[in-house]
Amino acid sequence: MLSVGGDIKFTERQRQVVRLIAAGCSNLEIAERLGVSPRTAKAHSDVLRVKLRVSRRRQIPAAYRSLTGEDPLQNLEAAPGVRDDSRMPD
User: Could you tell me which residue, 4 or 10, shows the higher pLDDT?
Assistant: First the structure.
């Protein structure tokens, strides 16, 4: 568990969800990649919105980066089950 700013802590699963949101994944895509239901993916997103004090899902990656100093897209390959479709063969 990553602890930031004293009281705010992020689990590895929450960091995975942040990475996937930053990559532009929908809740359905997050669910498929992490092997959970779409409702569970949405619940993770909702918890992150509250924890990061943002009103919109798309604000999560920027708020996470601002709080932790970590770029969620930098570690995208490290997230289990995450495909990088941007590296398609020529």
Answer: 10
Mean pLDDT of 50-65: 95
Beta carbons within 10 angstroms of residue 12's beta carbon: 11
**CA 34, CA 62: separation in Å to the nearest integer?**
22
Domains of the chain and CATH, by start: 2-70 (1.10.10.10)
- Tally the C-alpha atoms within 13 A of residue 50's C-alpha that lie toward its C-beta: 5
CA separation for the pair 78, 76 (Å, rounded): 5
User: In terms of residues, how long is the chain?
Assistant: 90
Question: 33: Cβ–Cβ under 8 A, 6 or more apart, which residues?
Answer: 20, 25, 81, 82, 83
Cα angle: 28, vertex 17, 58; to 5 degrees? 80
Please give the residue that has the higher pLDDT: either 58 or 87. Answer: 58
Averaged pLDDT of the chain = 83
